[in-house]
Amino acid sequence: MKNKTWLQSVLNIYLIEYALSAILRQKYKNFFILSIFTFLTFLLASVFFITNSIKYELESTLEALPQIIVQKIKAGRQDDMDVSAVDEILSIAGVSDAVARVWGYYYFQNAGVNFTLVGVDEYENQYKNSLEKIVQKFDFNNEENIPSMIVGQGVKENMSRNYYKQYFNFIKSEGTLKKVNIAGVFDADTQLESNDMIVMSKDEVREIFDIQQTKATDIVVKVVNPEEINTIASKIRLMYPECRVITNQDLQVSYQNIFDYKSGIFLALFIVCLFTFFMIVYDKASGLSSEEKREIGILKAIGWRVDDVLKEKFYESFILSFFAYVLGIGFAFAFVYIFQAPLLRNVFIGYSELKTSFELPFVFDTQTLFLVFFLSVPIYVAATILPSWKVATLEADEVIR
Amino acid sequence: MILTPEVLTLCILNILFAFFAIIAFVLSVKIFLQWDLNATTQKQYLLEKQSFLAATIIKYIFAIKVPLFLFFIFTLDKISHVLTGAMCAAGVVDATQYGTYLLILKVINLYIFAYWLMLHRADMQDENQPYTKRKFGLFIAAFFLFIAEVVLEGIMFSAIDVDKMVSCCGSLYSSSATSYVSNIFRIDTEVLLFVFYGNFVLIGLFYLLKNKYLFALSNLSFIVSGVITLIAFFGMYIYQLPTHHCPFCFLQNDYYYVGYLIYFLLFIGTFSGIGAGLLPASNTSRNIGYKISLLFNGLYVLLLSLYPLFFYIKNGVWL
Amino acid sequence: MIELIDVTKIYEVNKKESVRALSHINLKIKEGELVILKGSSGSGKSTILSLIAALSKPTSGEVLVDTKKISKLPDNFSSEYRRDNIGFVFQKYNLIPNLSVKENILLPLVPLNLDAQSMHQMSESVMQRFHIEHKQDVLVRNLSGGEQQRAAIARANINNPKIILADEPTANLDEKLSLHFIEMLRELKASNKTIVIATHDPLFFGLDFVDREIQVHNGSLVL
Ligand SMILES: Nc1ncnc2c1ncn2[C@@H]1O[C@H](COP(=O)(O)OP(=O)(O)OP(=O)(O)O)[C@@H](O)[C@H]1O
Ligand SMILES: [Mg+2]
Known about the structure:
The complex is a heterotrimer.
Chain A: H1 6-10, H2 13-25, H3 27-64, E1 68-74, E2 77-79, E3 81-82, H4 85-90, E4 95-108, E5 113-120, H5 129-137, E6 148-152, H6 153-161, E7 167-171, E8 177-186, H7 191-194, E9 197-201, H8 202-209, E10 215-216, E11 218-223, H9 229-239, E12 243-247, H10 248-286, H11 290-301, H12 306-338, H13 344-348, H14 366-392, H15 396-399
Parallel strand pairs in A: 5-9, 6-8
Antiparallel strand pairs in A: 1-2, 1-11, 1-12, 3-10, 4-5, 4-11, 6-9, 7-8
Helix pairs in contact in A: 2-12, 3-10, 3-12, 3-14, 10-14, 12-14
Chain B: H1 5-34, H2 42-82, H3 89-95, H4 99-124, H5 132-159, H6 169-172, H7 189-209, H8 212-239, H9 258-278, H10 283-315
Helix pairs in contact in B: 1-2, 1-5, 2-3, 2-4, 4-5, 7-8, 7-10, 8-9, 8-10, 9-10
Chain C: E1 2-12, E2 18-29, E3 34-38, H1 45-52, E4 60-65, E5 68-69, H2 75-85, E6 86-89, H3 101-106, H4 116-129, H5 145-157, E7 163-167, H6 175-190, E8 194-198, E9 212-217, E10 220-222
Parallel strand pairs in C: 3-8, 3-9, 6-7, 7-8
Antiparallel strand pairs in C: 1-2, 1-4, 4-5, 9-10
Helix pairs in contact in C: 4-5
Bound molecules: adenosine-5'-triphosphate and magnesium ion.
Magnesium ion binds next to helix 1 of chain C.
């Protein structure tokens, strides 16, 4: 009694042991609660893990996004742009660079997916760091006559599944075939961005999509001072009233909005579930069998205080809910990062059907663990307060008679 | 209006707390008005049982409130990434006119809840339960402060405008700022340090004199002088920048979360000091309170003093 | 030692009905005394025991144990008082059927948070004393009536109480086991415990080591 360690004086091991055996003695009831609760925390944790991953992907993608994009609009649709506009835009004060991009989506019918074809020019500034790296690393003109390309991991898999291992035959817009060698595969920083990407020289892309030499898909503009993006964008709008001018902030906001909207709806649904659960626990915990009541009566009669009973009941609910929490988190980890969240990820990635698939990157965020904790354990414990108090203050005299 | 999952979580828990606090409040009022330990009526027996429920609820709220307070600070830090201009929680606190009051109210409530728990313990250790009326009376007052906190928190989060530029802590906590915070930078450094160390010496003196009221009072003033000196003087040395004073930034990873340790020391030190003075207790347990208070306040002073000292040893100059 | 002063106990069944279980009882029991409470069913014997154990509170009057007023203790303190002073052998034994004998016997000590060694020693010594150690790991629901009885007595003695209360201890035992219980009682009496037994089993009447037999009738003591 005298040689107690600090931990022993704070935690009563025997009381915990008793709480554990009390949980096990009510096997069916507690197993039922444990399953529901584990499922709820699992669902919640999965959603947070998925959104964290996608957010991470999106943020990296958006960072790499050009500051301003200028597109020509004709009959409400995007049309090819004159390359000459580049020089005019470069003359605006504050613009550090303007690049004409040649790119487009190529629909690969056999696999039912879209590839993104991006044209690059060795002697030109690249508008993205990742492209710069690729251009430096690979040589597109190593073999005379046969053009080559660099493809993303997802593209590579899709092609080889259709027996294109060394080269690929593109169908040009007039119907003839164009053979392009696969010169290499690149890993990009993020998968959302580049998994479906094919990089080749601009001339090749122009040929496949039938774009004239003086034309480009769009023009991207780099600005010296990010604060000036909006002013420069409006200047370009004045110069080219027939064009659409998009800034990266516009994109960021629209992405974020879609995203918050979806997780908002989810959380609202979750809260409804949580309160239903609260009621179930309350109901289960307060509907005590006469046997359980007698047990508490006995404990009080042999000298347990009300506080001891309350403590024991607290241990019970904490052990149960914390166990469910750990299980739920564990399952969610496996579900999201090992099995790549089947079904659930489609809710958050609406366009996944068209795009080649990408992996959810592992993003570990301790705050999410706290978040899920606060949304689960305290709420369960709260639901048991009233029922625990009711049994703890039972008249021992009356229940054990 | 800002509605991240973190904010939503805080709101859900606040609603839950409010619901339980109302139950505890109703019971407290009943107990406060009708408690009579000598009565042998059914009513008194019922009240005795209900006092357990009220106490359990209050303990529950406090037990979650402490980690939730840290989570709240974490959340503010996280929101600061969304708000243009903010670098840390300070910008979010300043983003609305309610932030500062909410933060102060939260801290006051923590002290009150902790005090309530100590009172409850003293009450439960005595067969005559001499403080029952007092502790539930205290909770009646604490309830209104608590509800004010919950309401203010809701108002604050709904008042945050994501598109509005806010100030960063660098400009908020600087001598050129216009807010009342900037007043503390007008105080002479010598005066400030004299008050700070003087206050600590006074705490030691009142410990030797064993005067409980003066001891509590000197601890109360140490909260104020401790925080002001931290912002105006020691902060610079923690950041090693003569212009940076923010009381939030050192809660972040870049400073090894040292802020949590700093505030923890100050809270335990001053709380046990105030508790030792005001709580009804035996002489031995009061003595323990004195000693804890002295120890933790001492560690606070030591930890803060080490920053400028090391800076001086390393660079040979003061900031 | 134990003193009941002008004790009345009224059970309120519901708003209108109430049962007067005891009225104006005065009773003094000295330290080391063994007292038998006898009387017909419903006369109030169990009520007296539960008042002494502070399991219920009198409607009026006072209960003193060691000059300490236990009739008006707050709930937590009445539990502590029971834990430190009372060993109660209940009519239905009140063991927890899904725990083993040893676990049941240790139950009163659980909130005390003692170290494992002294817990073990205390349980070993009472289990030996009441001859149940060979069944210590058996679940209580698999025990015979006599074994349950012994487990219950062992549990009542684990905290080495000054006062032992027993309510109809032989109601569920055959004659042989009842006589065995009486032998244990003699041993307890020899260790100078204050003992109060409520029973209407004639086996208890006229025993040589019993100090007093008190007749309870309709909530009053017949002297
Ligand atoms: N919880 C209760 N509520 C209402 N009435 C009660 C309660 N407990 C006891 N009584 C009544 O009080 C009276 C005395 O009961 P008590 O149990 O003390 O009798 P007893 O002498 O022990 O009887 P028995 O020999 O049957 O055990 C009885 O009339 C009983 O019905
Ligand atoms: Mg009876």
